[in-house]
Every structure is written in structure tokens, then in C-alpha cells.
């Protein structure tokens, strides 16, 4: 069994990444110059180099500053008055999709509790622009909870996959996700399935925040109770020393055990590994699930 790294922020070998090459850095610079926000940059995703190399991008809409203050998240927190909604943002994203000839698109957002529609209109507008350009582009959304409202218009825009993350176990919400509510997030996933029973839904947990194995399994059961199709489990990595600290580096064997448990419980697809994130291998996971549905 592999030795677990100490808690002094020393990364296990399986979390180390390769240095990005010149082509990837050039693409990264292009994103910055065009004013495109991505999970790669804003959320400090550990897979950004690998995803850019594979021509996979997770766009962040509604700006780059979040109105909430989750203790695990690297996205910049809003200071002062919220900026007005950037109505050109969906068009810039469409331009880049055309430029890079993307066939699968991931769209997420910061949380904008200041907006009357919680930003749902920007989601639907972005989807409609993409669909009008090319109908068969795969679209995965990773949405905030919209405070429990405004989900109808997002589902009506017909994404292929709708993800909403629980992020951690209920016991840790007040420490890590003060603006969120565990039951409200479950209701978002449940309502999405009611609005469109054929919609593929997904949720993720970051492990190593101090959760216990029994708590993780109970979250799996809750997600299955609301019809969640895809589960993603990854290792939490504190973005900076100011964020919530890593309590444990989960060994590879435990990730494998969680995956086996989740599949036995009934999830259709499970990604469970230290570097797994919601949008990690999103196209592959979507098409794998489509093949499973067609063969069944």
C-alpha cells in the first residue's frame, strides 16, 4: 500500500504534473488576450495543461469574480460593487469555439447572487448561440445552485450534460461552503431530472477535507436518490495557504475502493482518482455513457 504524504503540503508523486510545452502556453496567452475566463486559469485546475493539449476547455461565464466565499475555491472573490453583466461574453466564447474547432464544450460560471435571474439567462444565451452555430456540438454545463430558482430556462436550452457539485459532505458545509446548502444542491439535481428525465446529470466531491468514508458513501446514496448518473471523486488541493487546509492525501487504493462502491450502488459512470475534476475527461465520459445507453 502506498504511503500517504505528510500534512505539510508535500504532494504525493501521483499528483505531480508535467511542465507545459510552448504550444500550450501560447494557447493560454491567447485566452487571456481575448478576455476568456476558464477553469484552467481562474480555478487553478491541476489538469489545465493536459486539457489544453487535448483541445478541451471549460469556460467560465458571468465574469471572473464570485459573490460567495467558499473556502476551498481559487476563483477570485467579489470585492465591492458587482460588475454589470457582460452581454458580449457569449459571443467571445462562440468566436473561440469556431477558432479552435471545438466539438465538445464545457460551460461553468462564478456564482452571481446579485443578479435577478442568478445568471441563468447568460447560460441559456450561450447555449443557443452554440447550437445555432453547430447543432451537434456536445455541451456540458456546471451550474451554481441559482439559490434554488431559475433552473427551468437552463434545462430548456437543452445541454447534453448538467453538472452541479455537492463538493463535500454535509458536516463540512458550514466550514467550507457557507453560502451553499447541501439539501438545496440535491434539489437542483432532482429538479433537473424532473424537468428532463433524459438529461444526464453529474456531481463531484473533493476528498481530503476531513470527511469520513461513511459520510462519502451516504452522499453517494443521496445522489443516486435524485437520479444522478455520473460521479466524480478527486483529491482536494488547497489553492493557497489562506484557503481551507488539506487534511489528508487520499491514497490511490481508497479512490479505487470508492469507485467500486459507487458502481455497485448504481452510478452509470464513476471517475475516482486524485486528479479527477468535474470537467476532467468530460467528452470521453459523455460518449462512454451514450454508448452504454445505446447498448442497453
How would you describe what is shown here?
The protein is an alpha/beta fold. It has one domain (17-295): Aldolase class I (TIM Barrel), CATH 3.20.20. The protein contains eleven helices and ten strands. The chain has helices at residues 22-33, 39-42, 48-53, 89-100, 120-133, 151-156, 173-176, 182-195, 213-225, 252-265, 282-295; strands spanning 37-38, 58-61, 65-66, 76-77, 104-109, 138-142, 161-163, 200-207, 230-235, 269-272. The strands form two sheets. Strands 1-2-5-6-7-8-9-10 form an eight-stranded mixed beta sheet, with helices on both faces. The longest helix has 14 residues, at 120-133. The radius of gyration is 18 Å and the shape is globular. The chain starts with 21 loop residues before the first helix and ends with a helix. Residues 1-8 have low confidence and may be disordered.
- Order of helices and strands, N to C? HEHHEEEHEHEHEHHEHEHEH
Helix content: 25-40%
* Beta fraction: 5-15%
Overall CATH architecture = Alpha-Beta Barrel
Class per helix and strand makeup? alpha/beta
CATH fold assignment: TIM Barrel
**Any idea of the CATH class?**
Alpha Beta
Structure annotation, total helices: 11
Strand order of the largest sheet: 1-2-5-6-7-8-9-10
- The radius of gyration computed from the alpha-carbon positions, rounded to a whole number of angstroms, is 18 Å
Let me know the CATH homologous superfamily.
Aldolase class I
Could you say which overall geometry the principal axes of the C-alpha atoms support? globular
Low-confidence stretches: 1-8
Distance between the termini: 37 Å
Tell how many strands the DSSP assignment holds: 10
Kindly state the mean pLDDT as a whole number? 86
Largest sheet: 8 strands, mixed
- What is the number of independent domains? 1
